[in-house]
Amino acid sequence: MLIPYVVKPRADTGLNNGKIGIWLFLASEVMLFGALFATYLMMRLGSSDWPVGTTYLDPRWAALNTIVLITSSVTMVMAWAMSAKRNFKMFRFYMLCTVGLGLVFMGIKYIEYTAKFDHHYYPSTNVFLAIYFTLTGLHGLHVLGGMIVNSYFALFGKKAYNENPEWFTNRVENSGLFWHFVDLVWIFLFPILYLL
Amino acid sequence: MMSDGHHEELPFWRKYIFSTDHKVIGIQYCVTGLVFLFFGFCLMMLMRWQLAYPDQPIPLIGGLFGDARAPGGIMLPDFYNELGAMHGTIMVFLGVVPLAVGGFGNLILPLQIGAPDMAFPKINMVSYWSLFLGGVTMFGSFFLEGGAAQSGWTSYAPLADIASSGQTAWLIGMIFLITSSLLGSINFIVTTIQLRAKGLSFFRLSFFCWAQFVTAFLLLLAFPPLEAAGVLQLMDRLADTSFFLPDGLVISGEILERSGGGSPLLWQHLFWFLAHPEVYVLILPAMGIVAEVIANNTRKPLWGYRAMVYALIFLGFMSFIVWAHHMFMTGMGSTLATFFQTTTMIISIPSVIILSALLLSLWGGSIRFNTPMLFALAFLPMFGIGGLTGLPLGLAAPDIALHDTYYVIGHFHYVVAPGTIFALFAGVYFWYPKATGRKMSETLGKWHFWPSLIFMNGVFFPMLIQGLYGVSRRLADGGATYDFAGSVGPLNRMMSWSAWGLALAQIPFVINFFMSLRNGKTAGDNPWDATTVEWAAPSPPPHGNFATEPVVYRGPYEYSVPGADKDFVPQTQEG
């Protein structure tokens, strides 16, 4: 038994199944992070002495991380383009770059977190740090999830690519959409936590 | 062609346990849902003993609960709270939703749109097993020290923030259940959009498919905020944050050692942002089932099919902007209260359109009173009572008097118990032949229906009366120690005996369900002379469902078409 429209788009919708699926998933992610941003707003509006982000956080690390993530989005697109052009070698190169940059992001996050803990700043210290750790922690989990999927494509994707390169490229595209979304969340997190 | 020529025989565990076939998964959901409905019902029956006979030892099984819960068989208030919180949680998230959405959605929707399976069969399997893990977590939490969650199914903060470890298990269980719903809803939406058979345009979809489609959007967009809230409450409980704890919170005379600065109301907003759409998740699939059964058994097209579909979509949108009508008592101010009571009154319009259309569909039909039809017919007035008793609760002024009384319990149980659960029974009797190839017994079905109808009302109608007298829903003794409850207190015994009667009334159903597997009348492909696509498949449908790819030529309810040679024209019939 074969499920139709897994690879080729359906004529009247113009989309394949996975594409709709990933966009629906991202819609639910918008609601998840939306609720957490709403929490941030309620905490902040309800507080009489909300700290400026720089009291606890160093925006230079975050700026560096923003650059890292944006670069990784570019390499992600390149990986997809190389797969679409049927150049698996270059696809693998760019995909590994994407994963590597994700790793750099997580490394910087690790440095930031340990610096906080060294100063005895914990989630329990106040609601600002609580929402900081929750938002960046959940975002970090998303980065990790994206890295796992991308590593799988880069390291073990050869067989799937050989069997059906078009399907493989679609899957890389879906993973890329998720990666860009995670990138976009960070673009919102950076100003509200570090700058405002 | 959909079949790939050869079917290799799968091992048992791939075929029936970790299956990717939507029908097996659907049956897994149905059975899980029914088992948890029964379990949740048992919790309630224990509570009903305490309400009817406060502080008397529970007969026969009272000794089983141990000294921590029921010393000498007498239920402690903490145990009562545990039962109450878990009854709500289990009935909603592990009983009705898995049965209505996971069960009927999985089993029927792909068949009804002429698809070979769901769009993502593996994700479908993951979503069932995620639900299963959620169920195990919830059930297991009863065995933790301090017992299962005790802060109500709403888990209001700050109480839930400082409750015993059962609450942590509740949150982890909810995260499994949310993941399950999320994956399931994506699957339903993609399947409906992409896998419709040739010729099956959106306005040829059955009302049931429309209901599942809209429900899936509600699950997709409403559950993530609860997931966020669950993460925040977990942080509060495990990492000592104060998202839901205000400054200077005093507990048992001592100031709580926390940073404070949080907002207990935030939890309520996030919770009800999910839980109001969740109400429609409970009711829309039920309406879908009732619509199918009514069209089939009146032998008439649904009255106002298009208006019903538009009402359904409108209802879906509106359900996202009514949530704070659960919170009129929080001092939100009259401006906000006015906004939410207005949207609440508006959302009653599409519900009334759908219910009226279903009622008008009966007009002039030659009705077949078989078991599914009896349950579907009973749904109409029962849901009607549930809906109408909701109006005073949706208006801020009367809600102040009725809030947190038994009136609220009576109201939403009329919607969900004799409403949704009756519709689900209708669905079980209606589609059982498709799933198993055999019909259920009509005689036993009627022995199930009539006592259930009487006892359901015996349980829930007195609650409305007690509520109008002001009896609070939270009292572990049912109001025995309050004078004002005195005159309506004895109703508790009537309700409890009705509840136990209701349990007995389910025995014919259980017997019927299992006996018919072997002894039921062989059904054939289309035992009800129905029009929709699922009846074109063999009963039970094989892996891959249809022998040849079905093509749809007409709308879903072409019954009693003038000039046709039979009183129904299947969607797949040419010409």
Structure, explained:
- The complex is a heterodimer of chains A (196) and B (575).
- With 196 residues, chain A is an all-alpha fold.
- Chain A has one domain: Cytochrome c oxidase, subunit III, four-helix bundle (Four Helix Bundle (Hemerythrin (Met), subunit A), Up-down Bundle), CATH 1.20.120.
- Chain A is 78% helix and 0% strand.
- Chain A has helices spanning 17-45, 59-84, 88-118, 127-156, 158-163, 165-195.
- The longest helix of chain A has 31 residues, at 88-118.
- Chain A is elongated.
- In chain B, 57% of the residues are buried.
- By secondary structure, chain B is mainly alpha-helical.
- Chain B has a two-stranded antiparallel sheet with strand order 1-2.
- Chain B has one domain: Cytochrome C Oxidase, Chain A, CATH 1.20.210.10.
- The two termini of chain B are 22 Å apart.
- Chain B is built from 16 helices and 2 strands.
- The A-B interface holds A 1-5, 10, 13, 15-17, 20-21, 24-25, 27-29, 31-36, 38-39, 42-43, 46-47, 122-127, 130-131, 133-134, 138 and B 2-4, 116-117, 119-121, 182, 185-187, 189-190, 193-195, 220-225, 227-229, 231-232, 235, 239-243, 258-259, 261-263, 266, 269-270, 273, 543-544.
Please outline what is shown here.
Chain A is mainly alpha-helical and 196 residues long. In chain A, 78% of the residues lie in helices and 0% in strands.
Helix-strand string of chain B = HHHHHHHEEHHHHHHHHH
Major sheet details of chain B:
2 strands, antiparallel
Give the number of DSSP strands of chain B.
2
Spans of chain A of at least 5 consecutive residues whose pLDDT stays below 50 are none
Tell me the strand percentage band of chain B: under 5%
- CATH homolog superfamily of chain A: Cytochrome c oxidase, subunit III, four-helix bundle
**Measured distance between first and last alpha carbons of chain A:** 55 Å
Instruction: Quote the CATH topology of chain B.
Output: Cytochrome C Oxidase, Chain A
Computed Rg of chain A = 19 Å
Which architecture of chain A would the CATH scheme give at its second level?
Up-down Bundle
The tally of domains of chain B stands at 1
3D shape of chain A? elongated
Poorly predicted runs of chain B: 1-6
Which CATH class of chain A applies here?
Mainly Alpha
- What would you give as the CATH superfamily of chain B? Cytochrome c oxidase-like, subunit I domain
Query: What's the total helix number of chain B?
Result: 16
